[in-house]
Design goal:
Bound molecules: N-(aminocarbonyl)-beta-alanine, zinc ion
CATH superfamily of one domain: Metal-dependent hydrolases
Radius of gyration: 21 Å
Structural class: alpha/beta
CATH topology of one domain: TIM Barrel
Largest sheet: 9 strands, mixed
Distance between the termini: 40 Å
Mean pLDDT: 98
CATH class of one domain: Alpha Beta
Number of helices: 13
Shape: globular
Helix content: 25-40%
Number of strands: 19
Strand content: 15-25%
Length: 463
């Protein structure tokens, strides 16, 4: 199969230029002006951007959590990803008690097989850090193709600080990366008790029970462990300006601390928890939404390079049936998480680029190029010869009103209902095969579930 995309504006993380892109098989073969190739498919991309497909390194497909399961399976979640211009996901693989990391990977890969519509990889989440599991890190980083490891400083399945230090040392030896959900569990436990005594149990108190300082303290502690071990760490779903200050300060001193934030922390604020009725439950996620000052600081962090990636933390629970199953009388029982994989690119373009908060090149960097580099996806993340032909032909003028019934995520709401965005994917290719295209008033899926592949990632060289 060959494909020639003519006359579009190719966008990289550092520049943009008018060029044709020629794809042969699964890879980009040539880029240049007026390319003279006979291709089976020719696309006129004039007036459009030619972008590397976005990579979402933070999804929770079928996550079992708080008495529910995240609703997207590998088919629905990756169909939604494709329709949003996300051509790779890196999903979390939560190790169960007693499992090896290899068994945990095999279990998730079995769920993905024959269903996944775009490429995917997995981050093992270490939940049972037995000595043999810590020993297995070498193989996971070097043989299994999964060099990034998630740990939690909060929730019942958190790891303690001593284990965290061990994991930082061990991953460093093999070029791996520890990713951490950083919140101070004791601050949260204390505030949960206070609010329970006072009968303050509506979704708004979810936010108050997890204040900025809880994230700040945990990020600070994590950064000290990195300093101690001369290793590196990646903070997932960074939400608060105070935690960002800690990161900035540590980075200024040469501590290797990377981070991602998510569209919800950039675009939504804690007043959402005060929506009428039980609506605030739609935004119950951890960390919670913050104030506008934190959102502004996070945009600044992206511009300045202290935050390197925007991911979604896609973790969809139905409003009716999951969020309201146990939690109407107590915010602590509302499953934490919200949908987002499909809206990532449109939001970052419309609310980020068009609002002047980030440049187009920065958008490519934080959604694709840096993501591929940090997570070792060596064939992804750029429009360049030799790279996988994961390409979005993006129409920067196409308008779209975000409506749950126009999206593909298997969930009954979107936090962005009614938002009008400008700029949508016209065509999406996964390794040279068309998987989605704009049709009338929405993007439709035209690919085949099961065609996505597991991406073996490469470790990072500490030098
Ligand atoms: O609320 C969230 N973020 N749910 C998903 C699990 C996690 O902590 O990332
Ligand atoms: Zn988390
Ligand atoms: Zn998450």
């Amino acid at each position: 199969m060959s494909l020639l995309i003519k006359g579009g504006q190719v966008v990289t993380s550092s520049n943009r230029y008018q060029a044709d892109v020629y794809v042969e098989g699964e890879r980009i073969k040539a880029i240049g002006r007026d390319l003279d190739y006979q291709a089976e498919e020719v696309v006129d991309a004039s007036g459009k951007y030619v972008l590397p497909g976005a990579i979402d390194p933070h999804t929770h497909i079928l996550l079992p959590f708080m008495g529910s399961h995240a609703k997207d399976d590998y088919a629905t979640g990756t169909i939604a990803a494709a329709c949003g211009g996300v051509t790779s996901i890196i999903d979390f693989d939560l190790q169960q008690k007693g499992e090896t990391l290899q068994e945990a990977l095999a279990r998730k890969q079995e769920l993905a097989r024959d269903r996944v519509a775009v490429d995917y990889s997995l981050h093992p989440a270490i939940m049972d850090p037995r000595p043999d599991v810590i020993d297995e890190i070498k193989k996971a980083a070097q043989d299994y193709g999964t060099p990034s490891f998630k740990i939690f400083m909060v929730y019942d399945f958190r790891v303690d600080d001593a284990t965290m230090i061990k994991l930082l040392q061990e991953t460093k030896k093999y070029g791996g990366l520890v990713q951490v959900h950083a919140e101070n569990v004791y601050i949260i436990q204390h505030l949960n008790e206070v609010f329970a005594r006072e009968g303050k149990l509506t979704p708004y108190y979810h936010a108050l029970s997890r204040p900025n300082i809880a994230e700040q303290e945990a990020v600070s502690r994590a950064s000290k462990m990195v300093e101690l071990t001369d290793s590196r760490i990646y903070i997932v779903h960074l939400s608060s300006k105070e935690a960002l200050w800690v990161i900035k300060d540590a980075r200024d001193r040469g501590v290797n601390i990377l981070s991602e934030t998510c569209p919800q922390y950039l675009l939504l604020n804690e007043d959402r928890y005060l929506e009428p009725g039980f609506n605030g439950a739609k935004y119950v996620m951890s960390p919670p939404l913050r104030t506008e000052e934190s959102s502004q600081a996070l945009w600044e962090g992206l511009r300045g390079g202290d935050v390197q990636i925007v991911a979604t933390d896609h973790c969809p629970f139905d409003f009716h049936g999951n969020k309201d199953m146990f939690g109407t009388e107590d915010y602590k029982k509302i499953p934490n998480g919200a949908p987002g994989v499909e809206t990532l690119l449109m939001l970052m373009h419309s609310e980020g680029v068009l609002q002047g908060r980030i440049s187009l090149e920065k958008m490519v960097d934080i959604l694709a190029s840096s993501t591929a580099r940090i997570f070792g996806m060596k064939d992804k993340g750029e429009i360049a010869p030799g790279k996988d032909a994961d390409i979005v032909v993006f129409d920067p003028k196409q308008k779209f009103t975000v409506r749950q019934d126009k999206l593909h995520m298997n969930v009954d709401y979107t936090p962005y209902e009614g938002l009008e965005v400008t700029g949508m994917p016209s065509l999406v290719y996964s390794r040279g095969k068309k998987v989605a295209q704009w049709n009338e008033d929405r993007v439709e899926f035209v690919g085949t579930p099961g065609k996505g592949r597991f991406v073996k990632r490469v470790p990072f060289d500490y030098g």
